[in-house]
Amino acid sequence: DEYFGKLGPGEVLVMAGRPAVGKTALAIQIADNVVRNGGKAMIVSLEMNGKDLVGRIAKQRIGRNGAIAKGCSKSEYDAAKEKRISSAQSLKEAARRLNIFEVQETASVGRIEDRIAMLASANELPDVVVIDYLQLVQPEDSKASREQQVATISRRVKLMALAYKVPIILLSQLNRDAEKNDRRPRLSDLRESGSIEQDADRVWLLYPDPEVPVVQDSPSVQVLIEQAKNRNGVGGIAKAARFFRPAFLFERL
Fold first, then answer.
1. 223-250: b (≥16 Cβ within 10 Å) or e
2. Continuous segment of H or E residues that includes residue 128
3. How far apart are CA 223 and CA 241, in angstroms?
């Protein structure tokens, strides 16, 4: 919020990166921050179950104190495990404000919208929706080209955000072109359809900071979060953050 500007109602933020760069971690950290500040969040996970997702949020809430490092003693392991269990139990207090839906319930855009409508009718409309991730959403027209399928999903997500006046964080994969050509990612690397860039109000590209050498087996990696597009504000700016992998946590530098 401080660096890129707060997401507004009806905005779609596409958060894109290659696998293992921390897209899901950052998105759920944003959603949980909303919940911890008294708001409501909805997370649609199309690649992991709700139990694993809650486990990740519990680790984020503990931070480094709950990380289990290689070579730690039994007492250190037991202490960290106890903190994780306590954190997971504390999430029960926020159960009504943190709604998690798995792939069986929200495989398509239509079913995702049904869940938002259900929450809205119960006066529980979320303050932010996370969809993880676009390429796993089932197309409604199986005979259309893949590019057209993705374009339709992208457009419907934008219309859904406008209809319910809720910001949506839509995760997306990047293709391998940047890695093959040894360059920073750009908007054209959004996988499978240029319409993703067109429908998004903002696009964040996540990638390892090229100025910082990656240390093999290091628990932390420095990641650049680049706001490559902002329809309603400043684009083309980047912020470095530290991604602490054992806790799935992004930290300020």
1. bbbbbbbbeeeeeeebeebebbebbbbb
2. strand 128-132
3. 5
pLDDT in tens, 114-172: 999 999 999 999 999 999 989 899 988 888 888 889 889 999 999 999 999 999 999 99
Q: Which residues pair with 172 in a beta bridge?
A: 16
Q: Give the span between the Cα atoms of 250 and 234, in whole angstroms.
A: 22
Distance CA 172, CA 132 (A): 8
Closest residue by Cα to residue 194 from 144, 148, 142? 148
* Residue percentage of the chain with pLDDT more than 70: 87
Instruction: Give the chain's end-to-end CA distance (angstroms, integer).
Output: 16
237: left (phi over 0), alpha (psi -120 to 50) or beta: beta
Catalytic residue set: 47
Per-residue pLDDT at 143: 87
Q: CA neighbours within 13 Å on the CB side: how many for 48? A: 14
The reported pTM is 0.89
Tokens of 64: 């480094």
CA distance 159 to 165: 10
Report how far residue 132's alpha carbon sits from residue 178's, in angstroms, rounded to the nearest whole number.
22
**Which structure tokens are listed for 183?**
């360059």
Whether the Cβ atoms of residue 66 and residue 81 lie closer than 8 Å to each other: no
